[in-house]
Amino acid sequence: MKNKTESPKYTITVWQLLGTFLVLMTTWLLWSGLYKPLLISLGVFSCSLSLWLAQRTGFFRHALPIRSLLRLPALWWWLLIEVIKSSIEVARIILSPSLPIQPELVEFTTTEKTNSGKVILGNSITLSPGTVTIDVDEDRLLVHCLTSNTANELRSREVERRIEKLEIE
Length: 169
Hints:
The protein is mostly helical and 169 residues long. The protein folds into 2 domains: 14-61; 66-164, no CATH class. It is 58% helix and 11% strand. It has helices at 14-32, 37-57, 66-95, 115-127, 148-155, 158-164; strands spanning 104-109, 131-137, 140-145. It has a 3-stranded antiparallel beta sheet with strand order 1-3-2. A hairpin with a 2-residue loop joins strand 2 (131-137) and strand 3.
């Protein structure tokens, strides 16, 4: 008889591990900028240890599939533009003598299917100045918006539509 609290089995292929190791090692090398044998061997050790710990803690069970990762740059560019627009809007509000804020709480039910999608949605909302994801409970998000205009943009669900493109079943 199977224990109900036992987590479902998941597997990660050697190619996925190797690909993740190469990304980690490349990042480590670029950030380090030092290419001495001792430091490179320490980088190999730290990347290997990170992979081993990630495997042991079940990290890969919650990771996005590779096909989703290929769609991330489009989301990042869109999000960067939104952050810039929000930053300008918040700066305009702060510098205005009348301080025209209209704080509003927006609660909505998300259609994101995975925990990763919900986390990316909440973090993307919080990343934009003028909005903060206060609570995520199951499929419900509670977001504080600085202005009613920001709340209306959030209700349009554009950010949610873009993040749904990452979720591939």
